[in-house]
Design a protein that fits this description.
- Its cofactor is [8Fe-7S] cluster; [7Fe-Mo-9S-C-homocitryl] cluster.
- It comes from Spirochaeta isovalerica.
- This protein is an alpha/beta fold.
- Among the domains are: 124 residues, 3-Layer(aba) Sandwich (Rossmann fold), CATH 3.40.50; 162 residues, Nitrogenase molybdenum iron protein domain (Rossmann fold).
- 44% of the residues lie in helices and 12% in strands.
- It has 23 helices and 14 strands.
- The strands form 3 sheets. The chain has a 6-stranded mixed β-sheet with strand order 1-12-11-10-13-14, sandwiched between helices.
- Strand 13, helix 20 and strand 14 form a beta-alpha-beta unit.
- Helix 9 packs parallel to helix 12.
- Bound molecules: FE-MO-S cluster (CFM).
- FE-MO-S cluster (CFM) binds next to helix 3 and helix 12.
């Protein structure tokens, strides 16, 4: 079945109104003529989405990997539990006595009475208790849905406690789960508060020559460890990583770096933009997923500093690392060549991991994000044409101005000179321009659509998350989790690429998948018809 036809028949199963809406979120790709896709809009109630909530994006994603902030979830215990290291973000404290609160799960454990009479007192007590126990440098408060519904003012509580302590930065996040249409809103809220309360608090700088930040790298399965080693080998200092293997001290002087490198554009572009306006630090897009892309990204850093010694060191490192990845590709590629993959995940990886599959000679048949915005699909050039709807207006846009003392005109001049020579800054081309003509792109895919794709195309591997994993595997197709990496990783950089090649080769050649029969393929299932007007079609059974 052609993709055009599938796209249409799959979508036509929906009731008319749903069909009209979902149709705008699915298309056959043409990199030469990137079309407009619907993204970052509400999921239709009743559809099983892959998405998570705003609190997850703020607490779990952006702030989760920072080890020395006591992150308190203000809300019922369940929210805290589900953001408690389930993402496999790792950390490595400087030494045995360094603070690491990531293994704890701090929650105010709200009860019915707090919902009825208010939870501010409970929150104050929790902050006080955390302070007395740990004397941390910072305490952050994350609002869950009920906090917004009952109107607790977490920011007022934070201000009060901060003033009372005097030696502990306390700040809050209005990241109630319902605040946006997905976790993407939580990223934005996290970026705003980190920028307001932390970045710029420490002006000290080391005297190393090449100082950069890595933004949008979260150290899943140890990715950041691989990249830190790689940067060190090249002689490049990582001032801060947002926020894989990070400490609040790194954030506080991130503004002293000379360049921001963005991995995951979706989750952190706001910090990069604000840092550029206030401090003059330019940003450029990188990707350390895949050997080729890792090499390209390192070369970008070399080109930025225009230092012959750095450039030759980077080339040496690339040559050395490529030996490993070339050897691994030669070993595993015969088992993967010509096989197919589908990737439906997050707001970044569904794009980046296509490079790794290409290195294995595998074809990406279909891909899509859970919660990305149009710019992540179509490129930042469409930003001016994105309509700001009521849901996005819900999220505060900070008004940032140039810092009169700390703004670096020198960095901006360097950026302008390099742009003349063709180097790209402040840009992301998006997923669609890089995908093959004829591949399918679907935003916020539903479980039903996913099952249909698997049923018709039987890809050799499907990449998504835990919610999809067992449904897909029961259909006889291996599923690789691209959020947590299952139990594997690291997959970033050159060492990561070798791990990924090996893992995928194993998965796509395991005979067990051919032996699996889904329970529903042999037993009859209930069927029903949608109750609606003239376009009624029988639902699938
Ligand atoms: Fe960025 Fe991420 Fe991702 Fe993301 Fe996430 Fe993630 Fe992801 Mo899961 S920050 S958008 S909100 S790269 S947790 S580390 S894997 S959905 S594609």
């Amino acid at each position: 079945m052609s993709f055009e036809k599938l796209d249409d028949t799959m979508m036509k199963t929906y009731p008319t109104k749903v069909y009209r809406k979902r149709k705008k979120a699915a298309m056959v790709n043409d990199p030469g003529e990137v079309k407009e896709i619907q993204a970052n809009v509400r999921t239709i109630p009743g559809i099983i989405t892959q998405r998570g909530c705003t609190y997850a994006g703020c607490k779990g994603v952006v702030l989760g990997p920072t080890r020395d902030i006591v992150n308190i979830t203000h809300g019922p215990i369940g929210c805290g539990f589900y953001s408690w290291l389930t993402r496999r973000n790792q950390t490595r404290p400087e030494n045995e006595t360094s603070e690491n609160f990531m293994t704890y799960c701090f929650s105010t454990d709200m009860q019915d009475s707090n919902i009825v009479f208010g939870g501010e007192k409970l929150l104050k007590d929790a902050i006080q208790e955390a302070y007395d126990l740990f004397h941390p440098k910072a305490i952050a408060i994350f609002s869950t849905c009920p906090v917004g519904l009952i109107g607790d003012d977490v920011h007022a509580v934070a201000r009060e406690m901060k003033a009372q302590f005097g030696d502990c930065n306390v700040f809050g996040f209005s990241c109630e789960g319902y605040k946006g249409v997905s976790q993407s809103a939580g990223h934005h809220i996290a970026n705003n508060q980190i920028f307001k309360h932390v970045i710029g608090n420490d002006d000290s700088r080391s005297d190393s020559k090449f100082r950069v930040n890595l933004l949008g790298e979260y150290n899943i399965g140890g990715d950041a460890f691989v990249l830190e080693e790689l940067f060190e080998k090249c002689g490049i200092e990582l001032v801060a990583t947002f926020s894989g293997n990070s400490s609040i001290d790194h954030f506080a002087n991130a503004h002293t770096a000379d360049l921001n490198l963005i991995m995951c554009h979706r989750s952190i572009n706001y910090v990069a933009e604000m840092m550029e306006v206030k401090f003059g630090v330019p940003w450029t897009k990188v990707n350390f997923i895949g050997a080729e892309q890792s090499a390209k990204s390192l070369r970008k850093v070399g080109a930025y500093f225009e230092d012959p010694q750095l450039i030759s060191r980077i080339e040496e490192v690339i040559a050395e690392e490529m030996l490993k990845t070339d050897e691994a590709a030669a070993k595993y590629r015969p088992g993967t060549e010509g096989k197919t993959a589908m990737l439906f995940v997050g707001g970044s990886r569904a794009h980046h991991y296509q490079d790794l599959f290409a290195e294995l000679g595998m074809k990406t048949l279909a891909a899509g994000y859970e919660f990305a915005h149009r710019d992540d699909y179509e490129g930042r050039r469409v930003l001016p044409s994105i309509k700001v709807d009521a849901d996005s207006r819900n999220i505060e846009e900070l008004h940032i101005e140039k810092d009169p003392e700390r703004y670096s005109q020198a960095l901006q001049d360097r950026k302008a000179a390099l742009m003349e020579k063709g180097m790209e800054f402040s840009d992301y081309e998006g997923m669609m321009a890089q995908m093959e003509k004829g591949a399918l792109v679907i935003d916020d895919i539903s479980h039903y659509e996913m099952e249909k794709l698997v049923e018709v195309y039987k890809p050799d591997v499907f990449c998504a998350g835990i919610k999809e994993k067992y449904a897909v595997q029961k259909m006889g197709i291996p599923l690789k989790q691209l959020h947590s990496y299952d139990y594997g990783g690291p997959y970033a950089g050159f060492d990561g690429a070798v791990n990924f090649y090996k893992e995928i080769e194993r998965m796509v050649n395991t005979n067990v998948w051919g032996l699996i029969k889904a329970p529903w393929s042999t037993q009859s299932a209930m069927s029903a018809k949608y109750a609606r007007g003239k376009h009624a079609v029988a639902s699938h059974t």
